[in-house]
Amino acid sequence: MKKSSLLLAAMAIAAMPQMMAQETLRFLSARFSPTDNSTYSSPTFDDSGWRNISVLQPWGTQNERTNNEYGWYRIHFRLTPEMQLRSNGDAEKLLLDLGKIDDADQTFLNGHLIGETGVFPKGDKPYLTAWDQHRNYTVDLPSDLLNTDGDNVLAIRVYNGNGDGGKYDTPIRISIPYDVDGAEFTISESQTPKGRNLKVNIAQPQSPAIASDQLKGTLKVDFLDFDSDKVIASRSKKINITAGKSKDFEFAAPEGNVKALLTLTDASSKHSVSRSYHMKYILTPAAPEAPRFNTAPLFGVRPGSPIHFRFGVSGNRPMTFSASGLPEGVKLNASNGALSGSIPAEGDYTFTVTAKNDKGSASQQFTLKVGDKIALTPPMGWNSWNCWGLSVTQDKVWASAQSLIDKGLADYGYSYINIDDAWEAPERAIDGTIVANEKFPSIKHLADQLHGEGLKLGIYSSPGAYTCGRYLGSLGHEKQDAESYNDWGIDYLKYDWCDYGTKHDKERDRGTVASYIRPYMLMGEYLRSQPRDIFYSLCQYGMADVQKWGPMVDANSWRTTVDITDTWDSMSGIGFFQQKDLYPYAAPGGWNDPDMLVVGKVGWGPQLHDTRLTPDEQYTHISLWSLLASNMLIGCPIDQLDDFTINLLCNNEVNAVNQDILGKQARQIVVDGDIQLWARPLADGSQAVGIFNLGEKDTTVDFSRYFEALGIKEPSNIRDLWRQTDLHDAEWKIPTHGVRLLKVTP
Ligand code: GAL
Predict the structure, then answer these.
(1) What is the pLDDT of residues 518-533, one digit of tens each?
(2) Tens digits of per-residue pLDDT, 473-520?
(3) Ligand 1 center from residue 133 Cα (angstroms)
(4) What is the mean pLDDT of the chain?
(5) Phi then psi dihedrals of residue 492, to 5 deg
(6) Taking the CB of the first residue and of the last residue of the chain, which one, N or C, has fewer CB atoms within 10 A?
(7) Is 496 a catalytic residue?
(8) CA 467 to ligand 1: nearest atom
(9) How many A from CA of 483 to the centre of ligand 1?
């Protein structure tokens, strides 16, 4: 490059906003030879006859020899103008990020060895593999090894001892990183007596590519009004972080619908990186003080089975409940709205329930559908796994159950309290009966307590000899276990494949659909022969198209995925991609189960952390699970819920989508770049529509563009279900990973 253009480039950089991203050269392929010769390291070697192969697949899968052989990759590169400028700085390093190499390598820059990992075979000494090691080689700058304004050659000699070798995980990346480029941000928020704070943790990794051991600079936070993008407050702090360490920073944040824009600027280079975070915002309007019914107007129960049901009614307490036309054999608890008793004969029993408090009264016409089907709407409740994992105890379960009532979640239909794995004792009783371990002094007592409140108790087992947590499973004791569940008053069984795989693998018909159905059919029959209704929840991660045969084994729901975790990739992968084709299989009585909710505090026990889903991702999670008619099982301790999460879980109009009695699961209707529309028809003739933004930027969407795809002409009403308001326009800004959830009336 000529001097004058260098100067121009320098000026351009100075004038540019400080948000310039680190410049990286990325290579997805390289020239390759499956032979070995030391001249290949030389920059002047003529490799024009070599073929290009991908660095994202092993050379063995690209028709190159595989075993006990050497191969060479060569890449020609030139620095970008920005890199050329920086290549003269004393504190800088050239980073050659090669990813993993199977098995050993020697890497050369313009003929000079700059790094080696693993050991090549020598004489009768075998090679040593380092296939799993990420190669980050650096060259201190300025350096004679580097041709700053001309061609450079990176040559990698690779030895592969076994299998399909070579370089096959990441692209090859070449850069001159700034110190701030490596900074890792974890952004969350906290509530203090004075208001809320934005919490930022910045970790500076100990990377060979970082020029100084001290990251010094400023962290500036601009708080923007989400809708207008106007800055409403700005704060900044000096930072000084030693490489390999991290530091926490807190900034007082304004209330409202606010987005924080964070800019971290390195003091010496003035280079900066930025992140944004949309802070928690509550959309659900406060519930009226007068009584309001929030649950579906029907409940299915089998003839003669005990009824456990609680009317979900929000509003001031105390509240009294009364009914007119109550069928014989059924009682309504006047102070908590719990329905109990039983009805011997099939049929629809309709009556009116009234709830009264100091602010007024409300009534609901309600039908007990006595027949073969239970679970007429998806189950709502709580499960211990995502929070407590194997550290669950009866006290922890009761704490969540108690809070389900005290914090008002029971007023919105959450009614199952489910114990997951780790309640079982290490040995059965002498007669083979399953017993609980010392953490659960009395499951029967717990069931009685819950039934008194109109709530229900769930439990967990496996068709295998062991559960996934290596507790006792039901293999060989299925009948006995189903009878114990009946004795204790269990209302829900999650039956988890786990160690059944060991038995399955030895069976002659292993792998056939019949072999997958068998253990579930067996337990299904024993559950059905109990004189109580036990919701049957299959958990075998979707194997053998479980959705197609779940109803045949009398299942009420079937897990369709592996375990969820509290990340965007996990939740959105399960929700948007894995459920796409499953809508024909959901119906009253049997539901697809994309796994439990990951909102609030999770951790799989005993340590908990705030979900790593951003607030917008949580709105997406609940909206999508509602549209998908999924089981709504909360996976965090209810006694530790914050206001944001309560409002997320207790929006009656959103929950009504999940509990809609037509029981149709949403379909993906539109994929328009990052925007997806999912819709489900509702019992009242309207449809629920979720407009999701799966992209990395906030985006404005014109809803009317999609009317045709949704089969809508001129909607008579568009209601925003989170905000509970009717909308008079059709263009909205949808945050990154966020959603608008609508009810559209034709
Ligand atoms: C897994 C299951 C989880 C949880 C766990 C208990 O297989 O998918 O939801 O039940 O076992 O060990």
Answers:
(1) 999 999 999 999 999 9
(2) 999 999 999 999 999 999 999 999 999 999 999 999 999 999 999 999
(3) 31
(4) 94
(5) -155, 130
(6) C
(7) yes
(8) 12
(9) 23
- The pLDDT of residue 707 is above 90: yes
Percent of the chain at pLDDT > 90 equals: 90
Verify whether residue 720 is a known catalytic residue. Answer: no
Taking alpha carbons only, the member of 655, 652, 644, 725 closest to residue 292 is 652
386 Cα nearest atom in ligand 1? 9
Q: Please provide the size of the chain in residues.
A: 746
For ligand 1, the distance from its centroid to the CA atom of residue 595, given in whole angstroms, is 10
Q: Is the pLDDT of residue 603 over 50?
A: yes
Confidence of residue 232 (pLDDT cuts 50, 70, 90): very high
> Residue 185 burial by CB count (10 A; 0-12/13-18/19+): exposed, middle or buried?
middle
The mean-pLDDT minimum among 130-134, 356-360, 719-723 falls in 130-134
pTM of the model: 0.85
Give the model's pLDDT for residue 65: 76
Task: Give the type of residue at 744.
Answer: V
Query: What are the beta bridge partners of residue 670?
Result: 677
Q: Looking at the predicted structure, is the pLDDT value of residue 326 above 90?
A: yes
As a whole number of angstroms, the distance between CA 198 and CA 89 comes to 36
CB within 6 Å of ligand 1 — which residues?
385, 420-421, 467-469, 496, 498, 539, 563
Nearest to 650 by CA among 628, 615, 626, 682: 626
What's the Cα-to-Cα distance from 410 to each of 81, 248, 382, 450, rounded to whole Å? 63, 37, 11, 11
CA of 397 to the centre of ligand 1 (A): 17
Spot the catalytic one: 169, 563, 674, 720. 563
Residue 389 alpha carbon, nearest atom of ligand 1: 6
C-alpha Rg value of the chain to the nearest Å: 31
What's phi and psi for 65, nearest 5 deg? -60, 150
Ligand 1 test: best mutation among 388, 424, 468, most atoms within 8 Å of CB?
468
Q: Where are the alpha helices (DSSP H) in 408-545?
A: 443-452, 478-488, 500-506, 513-528
How far is the centre of ligand 1, averaged over its atoms, from the C-alpha of 425 (Å)? 17
What's the CA-to-centroid distance between 414 and ligand 1, angstroms?
21
Looking at 47, 105, 179, 496, which residue is catalytic? 496
Amino acid at 9: A
Distance CA 100, CA 117 (A): 10
List Cβ neighbours of 5 (8 Å cut-off, separation of 6 or more).
81
C-beta neighbour count of 462 within 10 angstroms: 28
**pLDDT value, residue 64:** 80
- Residue from 622, 746, 623 nearest 677 by CA: 623
- Which residue among 493, 496, 559, 562 has the greatest number of ligand 1 atoms within 8 angstroms of its CB, and so is best to mutate? 496
357-369 per-position pLDDT tens digit: 999 999 999 999 9
CA gap 37, 27 in Å, rounded: 23
What φ, ψ does residue 628 adopt, rounded to 5°? -80, 5
Nearest to 109 by CA among 27, 179, 46, 174: 174
Rounded to whole angstroms, the Cα distance separating 200 from 184 reads 10
Query: What pLDDT, on a 0 to 100 scale, did the predictor assign at position 22?
Result: 57
Q: State the alpha helices, DSSP H only, in 309-464.
A: 385-388, 394-406, 443-452
CA distances from 432 to 6, 478, 484, 579 (A): 83, 11, 11, 40
pLDDT for 80? 93
- Residue 340's nearest CA partner among 494, 450, 416 is 450
Query: Hey, what amino acid is at 105?
Result: D
CA distance 659 to 665: 11
Copy the structure tokens of residue 490: 């269990």
- Type and span of the H or E element at 408: none
Which amino acid, 654? V
- Contact between 503 and 456 under an 8 Å Cβ cutoff? The reply is no
